[in-house]
Every structure is written in C-alpha cells, then in structure tokens.
Write a structure and sequence with these properties.
The chain has 416 residues and is an alpha/beta fold. The chain has ten helices and 15 strands.
Length: 416
C-alpha cells in the first residue's frame, strides 16, 4: 500500500472513531429512546385484510385515508424501522403495497396503497407477552366509495386535533433580510418515506442526492461568495410545494433541485447527466415520464393534495414567471456548457417538462438529473467519489458564471 493511500486510510479510521465517540454523548441515546418497529406483515383476502406492526412498545397511531388513489395512512411518533429493505413491496388482499419512513421531524408514517375503498373495522394494540413483541393491528374490510370518502373527511378532523405540525423548515434557515450574498437553495429530492428511485444494485436516490447536495454546498461555501441552504439536511420528507415555498420565503437567487431517477422506457439507453427547466409542454417523452414520476412524490408520501395551494392567475405574476424562466434557461445552458467537459451527458442534455418543484414564479430554478439509477453504468458513477468531485466542481463553476456580473457590481459599488 502506498504512503498516500495509507495516510488516507488512517485519516478515515480516525474520523470514524471521532464520530463514534461524539455519538455516544447524545444522538445514540436519542436513537435508543425511539420505539422500534421490528416486523410487519399483511394477511387476509379481498374481503378482509389484517395489517400488523411488531413493536418493542405501545404507541398511539393516528389513522386517516386519502382518495385518488385510495390510500390508508398510519401516523406514528418517530420510530426506528428495523425492517428488510424490500418490506412493503408486495401486499395482499385489500393492500396493494405499502411503504414506511420518516415523514417529518418527530413523526413517522406508513402509507398503504389500497386496491379499493375500505373501512377500518378494528384497530388495537396487543401487549408484549413472553417472547412475543407488542403488536399494532389494523383490520380492514371492503367498503364503498361513499363510505370511504366520509372516512377521509372524518379522519381530517382527527388528524388536525391529534397531530402537531412541525415548525416550517425555513424557521431554521437564513433570514432573507440579512443576506448580503447571493442565496442559493439546493434541493435534494425525495427523503424519508419517499425513497425515490432504487438503482440496479440497490442504491437509493434519496441518499445519493443528499450526499451530493452536501458536497456541492461545501464547495460553494468554500468560495465564500454565497449563502447556501438545503431544503432538507437529513432523511426527512419535504412536500413539493414546501420545497418551492422555501425558495420563495428565503428570496433565493437560484434553486437547484437534485435527482437521480429511474426510467421505465429505454432504461438501457438513458444515461448521463441532464438539466431540466420548467415548461407547459414536455420537450420529449422521457422528460414527460420523469415529470409525472417526480410529481407523484406527494402521493407516495400520503400528502393530501386538496390542501396544496392552487396556482394564481395574474398578469404581474405571469410577467414575473416569464422573466424567471428566462433566467432559468440561461443558467441551464451555462450549466450544460460546464458539464460537457467534466461528465457524460445524455443526448440533448437541456430538456424541459412540467416539474412542480420548479414552479416558483420568482426564483430561477433548474432540476439536475445527476444520472439514471436504472442504468448500471450511471449507478456506479453516482457512488464514485471521483465522479462526484468532477460533477460538483463543474456545477460550482456554472454557479460562479451565473453570478459573476452581480458579484462584479457588488465589488465595484463601494468605490463609486
């Protein structure tokens, strides 16, 4: 082993030891205090289905429903899910499939995709006995669309009465009134209950894009030229509209959403980085498919879309959108130019579609597909430190180019 490699290996070991020592002081205790879900299963048939969670202690669930498509939501206090990675991929009876994860700070969630309208017949906890864990049991029976709609409405009242809404993310971020540098919002896609795409060899999109966003933030911070914020800095779900709101509330000068999706059609051929801007009509079928998939993020996480704000039609807003889209396209083209010499790009790398996360009327916004996890070659690159460094460096240079005129004006201002 070379001397340089030995030093790097030693540095990594020391870093891991330091992290382990610091973790003993607090975070490990907090993790141990969380209830643990140790098992889950679905049993039954199309007329009656039972869903069971094995837990190390009893908690109080809040159960609600959502239509279009039919979903059942089980909200829990924040728990640790000690379940196999493929848990929930297959359902049974009235449950098509289900997923789980952190939904917000202090709150975990299970979302079931139902095969049709159901009624929650019984919900109860079985206490732990001898070597048997405590069990949360939810019994479902087939119902009518009318009765399910009534359940949805009644469960909304129950949720608002029992579930405390976490503080908005922006309460913990930069006050826009205090910023004296261009403010950039990096938006790692998915998170928490929404894992995003899964690679050919098991890489998770939500983890890849968060790691990359942190790397890009570090490079931008190193320049000292910008204030950089993340829409999420941990494995937490953030609704699409909330991501847009964060950029708006912080009066961001640039919004970069970071993804690494999978494609169903032409998955062997779709590879390479892509830069997307918003448009009312998709530039091609791949872009349309990806926008549809990305816009389903809230549905996957069990967000009530009826509570989402509607678009406002206004002449001044429309003019602002047009100007913002022009800046978005300008940055996208500059970004593609920088990426061309650094990483592999897809054919026609600047594309467009109706991505909801890019709909801020006052913040230039782009969505960057680092690569496609449905392609095993891209998946290998996405977890490569060397590739990630090149990608992050190229994106940093594109940001410098985008803000260079403004930074030059700021430097000249004091002398005038």
């Amino acid at each position: 082993m070379s001397g340089g490699r030995l030093l790097r290996r030693l540095a990594m070991v020391l870093a891991l030891l330091a992290a382990a020592i610091s973790a003993q002081a607090g975070p490990a205790v907090a993790e141990a205090d969380k209830p643990v879900v140790t098992g889950a299963r679905v049993a039954g048939d199309e007329s009656r289905t039972r869903f069971v969670l094995d837990m190390d202690r009893q908690v109080t669930p809040v159960i609600s429903g959502l239509p279009s498509p039919y979903r059942l939501i089980i909200d829990l206090p924040e728990v640790t899910f000690s379940l196999p990675a493929d848990a929930g991929k297959e359902g049974r009876g009235l449950v098509g499939d289900w997923r789980f994860g952190l939904f917000a700070t202090g709150k975990s969630r299970v979302v079931m995709d139902l095969t049709g309208p159901v009624k929650v017949d019984k919900t109860f906890f079985l206490p732990a006995v001898d070597d048997q864990p405590a069990r949360l049991v939810v019994d479902l029976v087939r119902s009518s669309a009318k009765d399910f709609d009534a359940f949805v409405e009644s469960s909304k009242v129950k949720k608002s009465a029992q579930v405390t809404k976490p503080a908005p993310k922006s309460d913990r971020l930069t006050d826009p009134k205090e910023k004296d540098k261009p403010l950039i919002v990096l938006d790692p896609g998915h998170g928490g209950i929404d894992s995003g795409a899964t690679g050919v060899h098991g890489a998770l999109e939500k983890a890849i894009v968060l790691d990359f966003a942190n790397l890009l933030k570090a490079k931008l911070d190193e320049s000292g030229l910008y204030t950089v914020e993340l829409t999420r800095d941990d494995d937490t779900f953030v609704p699409l509209s909330r991501r847009v709101e964060i950029g708006h509330e912080l009066e961001a000068d640039l919004f970069i959403s970071i993804h690494a999706d999978s494609v169903r059609r032409g998955q062997k051929f779709a590879r390479g980085a892509t830069v997307y801007t918003i448009s009312d009509k998709a530039s091609d079928q791949l872009s349309e498919d990806l926008a549809v998939s990305e816009n389903m993020s809230d549905v996957i996480a069990g967000v009530d879309l009826d509570e989402e704000p509607t678009d406002v039609t206004d002449i001044l807003l429309d003019l602002a959108r047009r100007e913002t889209r022009s800046f978005s396209v300008y940055f996208a083209r500059s970004l593609v130019s920088e990426l061309e010499s650094a990483v592999r790009l897809i054919n026609n790398p600047h594309r467009s579609a109706g991505f909801r996360v890019l709909k801020a009327h006052d913040v230039p916004s782009v969505l960057v597909e680092l690569g496609y996890l449905s392609n095993e070659h891209d998946e290998k690159l996405l977890i490569s430190d060397e590739w990630r460094e090149r990608m992050a460096s190229a994106m940093t240079e594109a940001v410098h180019g985008f803000f260079r005129p403004r930074l030059a004006r700021q430097q000249e201002a004091p002398s005038q």
